[in-house]
Design a protein that fits this description.
The chain is mainly alpha-helical and 69 residues long. It has 5 helices and no strands. Helix 2 (15-22) packs across helix 3.
Amino acid sequence: MALIIEKRKAAGLTQDDVAEMLEEHQSFVARLESGQRRIDVIEYVTLAQVIGFDAADELRSLIEKIDTS
């Protein structure tokens, strides 16, 4: 979830901003970011679109990090 927080902050968005774009409550975003709630692939892609990053590129980077570990 560090990725989501990092990308959200880099985009200059608050949890409230993201929640509004998702038509959710701020607490929903807070639970995602804190790891209290897991996200599925569809939610991940939706978050990427709302925040403004390429979900596939970030997933590829994560897989590369895992492969080199």
